[in-house]
Amino acid sequence: MLNAYLYRVRRAALKRPWKFILALLFLGIFVLMISYPTLMSMPNSDGSMSDSFVPRDIEVVTGGMYLIVLVMFNFMFYTALKNGVVGFSTADVIYHLAGPFTPRFNLIIAASGTMQMCLVFTFLICTQTAFIYSAIGVSSVDLICILLGAYVAAVIGYFFGALFCAFFADDEKKKNRVLTAGIVVDVIAVGGFFASLLSGGNSLSELGVRGVISEFGRSWFIKGFPGGGWVALIYDGVINNCSVQSVAGIALTLISICALVFVYGKLNLDYYDEAIAYAQKAHEMAEAKRAGIDSDTAAMTRRAKVGKEKLGSGTGSSAITAIHFLMNKRGSKLFFVNPLSIMYRLITGVYLAFMSNSSDEPRGMVMSAFMMMILLNAVLYAGGKTVTEFTKHYIYLIPDTASHKLLACLRADLPEMAFDSLLCGGLVYFLCGFTIPEAAAFALMMIVFDLLCEMSALLIMRLLPALGRQLLMMVRYFGVLFVAGIAVVPMIVVFFILQSMLAAILAGAVTGVILLAVLLPVCSVVVARAEM
Amino acid sequence: MLTVNGVTKKYKKFVANDNLSFTINDGEVGILLGPNGAGKSTIIKSIAGLLKYQGTIEIDGLENHTLEAKSKLGYIPEIPALYDTLTIDEHLEFIRRAYKVEDVSVKEKLLERFELTDKRKKMGKELSKGMQQKVSICCALMHNPSVVIFDEPMVGLDPHAIKELKLMFRELKDEGKTVLISTHMIDTIEDYWDVVHIMMNGRIAATRHNVADKTDDKSLEQLFFEITEGVSES
Predict the structure, then answer these.
(1) How many other C-beta atoms can be found within 10 angstroms of the C-beta atom of residue B43?
(2) CA dihedral sign of residues A53, A56, A60, A66
(3) How far apart are CA B211 and CA B220, in angstroms?
(4) Quick one: residue A267, left, alpha or beta (phi over 0 = left, psi -120 to 50 = alpha)?
(5) Beta-bridge partners for B150
(6) Closest CA–CA distance from residue A80 to any residue of chain B (Å)
(7) What is the pLDDT of residues B170-212, one digit of tens each?
(8) Which chain A residues are closer than 8 Å to B144 by Cβ?
(9) Cβ–Cβ contact A316 with B under 8 A
(10) What is the ipTM, given to two decimal places?
(11) Does A393 touch chain B (CB under 8 A)?
């Protein structure tokens, strides 16, 4: 059966050669990202260092590594605790789970699926190399080791979480107790770290973000963190010349892996329910894609429940606005708050806090702040409700013009965009030293660019529907960045000519508005002629 | 009335529909019968205005892409695509408002008919495939369309819903509506059909009218297998 499984993998690879191209592309991005710190550390022709050069501080690197590895471990542990053992396709369910094979044997398939999933998440960290480098000043070797550690921690975390999920499959209360225990361990580790830090007479404001990160890597509450902390100990020992730590890390990691293999091998785990449910979900998504219907990623990220919210007024295309508002309310109780955007702004806030801590001229961070916000919003709005709405047939059947329908969708997104833009304005006001008019202009520019993200993503999705799901996502992402990049050029030019931040931001916003004025009618035509 | 005239739909070199022409009159139930891949869903989607094609399609004499034609059309897709976080009630209310239907009682009648009244607060993501199909049918009938097209409507429905749906086909017919159903299941269409177009390789291979004084003694099933198996063997 294992041979049959491997044969199917080979066949699938041969049937979809573009996946090889995609894999090569990912490999290329990976190499580029890994090389980033090395490239940044190369001196200029006159021997001086580049403005982007960040000196390597081993203590910050150590602390940053623990942070990344622990976040990854925890994320995968809680994900597995919720979803259980997954990674089976419908074919696996039919031929393996229903076949004459023990659940233990079938775990081999789950293991390969889980490892692939962890690899994707590790790759996502890899795409943030520029941020990691500017924040903690890693070298390329550091980065490889951190990613490797994060990957191992993710796999261990996932299998631990899935183990508990399967073990308490029929007892939700016990599963919740494991969840509580996990949170308690997290609170003890983080609380213990801060308690020991503050009891030692340290001041958080004096230490700054980098200082706190350095201390993070020194704390035994963190080093001793089950699973993730033990994995990070290995490289901690290597870069800090402490072989005892490395040996302890290797030993504890091996013990964790052996314990997992032993427990999975000995226990008769009941994981089929979750596995089948996940396979069914994956199958439905694939079927929907085949029928021309994309899944609503925004809805999937929200734990929506029916409450007291009501459908607002509006007929014709305005009914679309009304249902989008309702879905927003159901997702976050406040229709203007997208939980994902809050998370993204937190990431941006942390990034700006890092940068402002290490920069003498925080206003100079405007470009990196802006690009980071756009990068994240490209994910948020390029796969948002407006874009996914046009993958469903209803919108095409409603007897109204394409432009009305498009505007109805955009209208529903405006409150979320406005709130998000206010947060962006607040961040640059507090962390980049912007004046209120500059921050207000920045917020305005963000709304324009959010709309640009949606328009360009919609255009790409409707013009290139034949691309595979993954390829389409990538093209959509880079397409959005390209359009945003066009609007950034006048911003830079105006800044160099007038030396005025306000004028530069307004130039960016005006260019964005002009691009929008072009894209809106183009999108209307494309939508009117779209094929499902 | 639904008029399809010389419709050709190509996907690169593959011809999904090859110069299709047929008419379904008011008060008639037309069936598109054919094996998988015959091009039934393609022509259904083309009629719904979801695909580009060569040729003309008219709904009550109006070109199918016009707003007037859209307001006269009801479409039930093969795979129901509901909003994950909207309830059944909200789906129907959304369609009622989007199509500017004044009569609120239509929604209640449809919910009752398809036994959805007690489940009206359930969200799209919580529904089984059969339930989603029922909601999809209710949405399509909400605005009292004069032409209704069904793409494999029986798939996933329970026996009671199938019975109700068949009853509804007859009612729609009695009300003078034009009904077009795409299916590959011969046994589900029984005797409520008026005209059957058997499709094969993107073309209409045969057309059979349901008339009381049948002169052709071949059953629909015999004719279907004769065409489909004969073509595939040749």
Answers:
(1) 29
(2) positive
(3) 13
(4) beta
(5) B76, B181
(6) 22
(7) 889 999 999 999 988 887 777 788 999 999 989 998 888 887 6
(8) none
(9) yes
(10) 0.87
(11) yes
User: What DSSP state is assigned to residue B213?
Assistant: S
Tokens of A118: 């962890």
A500-512 tens-digit pLDDT: 889 999 999 999 9
Which residues 187-216 in chain B show a CB within 8 A of chain A?
none
CB A79 within 8 A of CB A161: yes
Put simply, the answer to whether B81 touches A288 (Cβ < 8 Å) is yes
| Residue A271 · residue A175 · CB < 8 Å | no
Tell which residue, A524, A527, A490, A483, has the closest CA to residue A505: A490
Q: Which residue of A has its CA nearest to B136?
A: A394
Neighbours of A227 (CB within 10 A): 25
CATH topology assigned to domain B2-79+146-233: Rossmann fold (3.40.50)
> Both tokens of residue A454?
């949606």
Q: How far apart are CA A134 and CA A495, in angstroms?
A: 24
**Residues B189-202: b if buried by 16+ CB within 10 A, e if exposed:** beebbbbbbbbbbb
Q: Are strands B29-33 and B14-24 parallel, antiparallel or unpaired?
A: unpaired
pLDDT of A87 higher than 80? no
First-to-last CA distance in chain A? 39
Q: Is the per-residue pLDDT at A1 higher than 70? A: no
Per-residue tokens: B184: 């590959």
Residues in chain A closer than 8 A to B83 (CB atoms): 296, 299, 323, 327, 392
CB atoms B98 and A393 under 8 Å: no
**Global pTM value:** 0.72
Q: Where along chain B do its domains lie?
A: 2-79+146-233
Residue A399 near chain B (CB below 8 Å):
yes
Tell me A94's DSSP state: I
Whether residue B13 lies within 8 A of chain A, CB to CB, comes out as no
Secondary structure class of A227 (helix, strand, coil): coil
Mutate to test the interface with B, among A392, A397, A400, A401 (most CBs of B within 10 A): A397
pLDDT at position A261? 86
User: What angle separates helix A469-498 from helix A18-40, to the nearest 10 degrees?
Assistant: 30
| Shortest CA distance from B86: residue in chain A | A327
Decide if A319 and B123 are in contact by the 8 Å CB cutoff.
no
Q: Are A140 and A37 in contact (CB under 8 A)?
A: yes
Cα angle for residues B182, B183, B186 (degrees, 5° grid): 135
Say how far apart CA A276 and CA A83 lie, in whole Å.
11
**Cβ pair A316:B97 closer than 8 A:** yes
Of the candidates A426, A448, A455, A438, the one whose C-alpha atom is nearest the C-alpha of residue A495 is: A438
For testing contact with chain B, the best of A289, A303, A391, A394 (most B CBs within 10 A): A394
- The residues spanned by each domain of chain A are 2-43+55-279, 307-528
